[in-house]
Amino acid sequence: MADASLTHGVWLERVPDLVAECAEEWDLRLAEPYGPGAAGYAVRAELPAGRQVVLKLIYPHRESEHEADALARWDGEGAVQLLARDDDRSAMLIERCEPGTTLSAAGRGVALDVLIGLLPLLWVEAGGPFHTLEDEAAWWIGYLPDQWERSGGAVERRFVDAAVDVLSSLSQSQGEQVLLHQDLHGDNVLAAERKPWLVIDPKPLIGEREFAVAPIVRSSELGQSKRDVLYRLDRVTSDLGLDRDRARGWTIGQTMAWAFDGHYIPTHLETVRWLLDDAT
User: Fold this and answer.
1) Crossing angle for the helix pair 226-240 and 108-122, nearest 10 degrees?
2) Which residues, 6 or more positions from 132, have their beta carbon under 8 angstroms from its beta carbon?
3) Which of 180, 208, 261, 266 has the greatest number of C-beta atoms within 10 Å?
4) Is residue 183 among the annotated active site residues?
């Protein structure tokens, strides 16, 4: 397993060597890389038999630590197929999606329908080695007040307090535990040939289904107004038979946790505000 203590900058400096090593290991013919991403590096490649694949290097981070394990567990059902892995280099060969356009480009109505259809395919039973939602919530509970202090109170304290309260309550009263993709939104679903749409880039957790609603509710590319956010919450929970209050709470908790990334994401804070107002 690659060193999880590496800074992103140091890791990026190692990427060319890692790519070369993987190309030699798997006898790859490399082509054009994809656009840079915060969580990894991906490049188009071809196997000796001519199969078109993607070489992906995963930046070692708590959230993406078991990406290969999640893809292996899904085994192509709703997600890209894992073809090979090198855990020492945090590298994977995965199925290439063609044409590869993002679901967010398909329009709001289509995108929401597709996301609702994909979620049940991903909710499979799984145990180790995945992190649990309970443990992640505990990490956020400790992280949020500290980040608020470091920011000099840059956001309303009530947002932080509400997130901590709901995370504390929900994490101890969860339902059935399944594998979750905690960053499932329109840019992490691609148009493909084997299936119309396939999920990429999991940040896997084991937890209750209601948590999986959070990234969809805050998907600003599907519309960023209070009406849009509440519609997505209502639609996903109703169609999939989920507890609306728990899904709303998880969305507040994770969205607030992900709003502290160095440049407070305005859409995340708007979403939290609207969901808190919805409870009053």
Assistant:
1) 40
2) 177, 205, 206, 207
3) 180
4) yes
Query: What does the chain come to in residues?
Result: 280
For 184, counting Cβ atoms within 10 Å of its Cβ (0-12 exposed, 13-18 middle, 19+ buried), the class is buried
Candidate list 69, 86, 183, 201, residue with the active-site label: 183
Please enumerate in sequence order all residues whose Cβ is within 8 A of that of 171, keeping only pairs 6 or more positions apart, or say none.
133, 134, 137, 138
List per-residue pLDDT tens for the chain, 280 residues long: 445 557 888 999 999 999 999 999 999 999 999 987 767 899 999 999 999 999 999 998 888 899 999 999 999 999 999 999 999 999 999 999 999 999 999 999 999 999 999 999 999 999 889 999 999 999 999 999 999 999 898 899 999 999 999 999 999 999 999 999 999 999 999 999 999 999 999 999 999 999 999 999 999 999 999 999 999 999 999 999 999 999 999 999 999 999 987 566 899 999 999 999 987 6
Nearest CA to 198 among 269, 94, 89, 127?
94
pTM over 0.90? The answer is yes
Token digits of residue 125: 């039973």
Cβ–Cβ contacts within 10 Å for residue 94, how many?
Answer: 22
